[in-house]
Amino acid sequence: MIKSMTGFGRGEAQDAERQFTVEIKSVNHRYNDIVVRMPKRLTYLEEKIKDLIKNEVKRGRVEVYISLENLGEGDTKISLNRSLVNQYYQCLQEIKEGFDVKDDISVSVLSKFPDVFIIESKEEDEDEIWQCLKSAVLKAVEMLMKMRLAEGEKLAEDIVGRCDYIGNIMKTIEKKNPEVVQEYKNKLRDRINEMLEDAIQIDESRLSIEVAIFADKSSIAEEIVRLYSHIGQLKKSLKEQQPIGRKLDFLIQEMNREINTIGSKSSDLEIVNYVVEVKSELEKIREQVQNIE
């Protein structure tokens, strides 16, 4: 089943200390480009996150947004430096008594002195953090892949329908092509008769040679066969499990090449109009293929 490169996924996970929310969105891109935006203190997990996503997403630009909410005491611990506060207090008392200062010694005054508070980073279990974050990432990836698969299924249906339509047009062109040679022969005969005014009998062998040369130059049988083959390969590729976006893009290029050759060889207005119609459908398929992984 083919996958679209467009999708969105969201996942949440929490333990006793924290809650992670992960949002992933993907759009079409030539390569596999993953960008992770998350709190700086979690950057050491970036490669693990990318590896999880790469297991499922083979192509496309993927943007990952991670937010963290602390549910416990947080990652820092603040305590009072009692010894230092006591020294500050004693010094202030000396100032008050020695210089006859009547102002009170308040908490706000003491709290402004440097190093009154001790701030310590709480040691965290990195494996515990990763297990919680991993759960949220996997949930977001699962939702993303479901959306990409659903979108891919719709793209496949549209492409198959357009391929069938092109196939029907090619059958019409294939049926019409032999008539073009006969029409050329009749027109050539009429033109010669008009120019010579039936004064000289037409050399049938010479006329046949001219018609044969025209038929050879205007033959589109090979192009039609190759175009049928490309249509078959394209429809078959849509059932493959691995990423096929680049393969489909190549097949569309080859189909365009064949239909352009048919157009350049054809002098019949009806066939030329069919060629224009096929090229229009191929362009629509090409636009759809740009979104396939």
UniProtKB/TrEMBL annotation:
<protein>
    <submittedName>
        <fullName>Uncharacterized protein (TIGR00255 family)</fullName>
    </submittedName>
</protein>
<dbReference type="InterPro" id="IPR013527">
    <property type="entry name" value="YicC-like_N"/>
</dbReference>
<dbReference type="Pfam" id="PF03755">
    <property type="entry name" value="YicC-like_N"/>
</dbReference>
<dbReference type="InterPro" id="IPR005229">
    <property type="entry name" value="YicC/YloC-like"/>
</dbReference>
<dbReference type="Pfam" id="PF08340">
    <property type="entry name" value="YicC-like_C"/>
</dbReference>
<keyword id="KW-0255">Endonuclease</keyword>
<dbReference type="GO" id="GO:0004521">
    <property type="term" value="F:RNA endonuclease activity"/>
</dbReference>
<comment type="similarity">
    <text>Belongs to the YicC/YloC family.</text>
</comment>
<dbReference type="GO" id="GO:0016787">
    <property type="term" value="F:hydrolase activity"/>
</dbReference>
<keyword id="KW-0378">Hydrolase</keyword>
<feature type="domain" description="Endoribonuclease YicC-like C-terminal">
    <location>
        <begin position="173"/>
        <end position="293"/>
    </location>
</feature>
<feature type="domain" description="Endoribonuclease YicC-like N-terminal">
    <location>
        <begin position="2"/>
        <end position="156"/>
    </location>
</feature>
<keyword id="KW-0540">Nuclease</keyword>
<dbReference type="InterPro" id="IPR013551">
    <property type="entry name" value="YicC-like_C"/>
</dbReference>
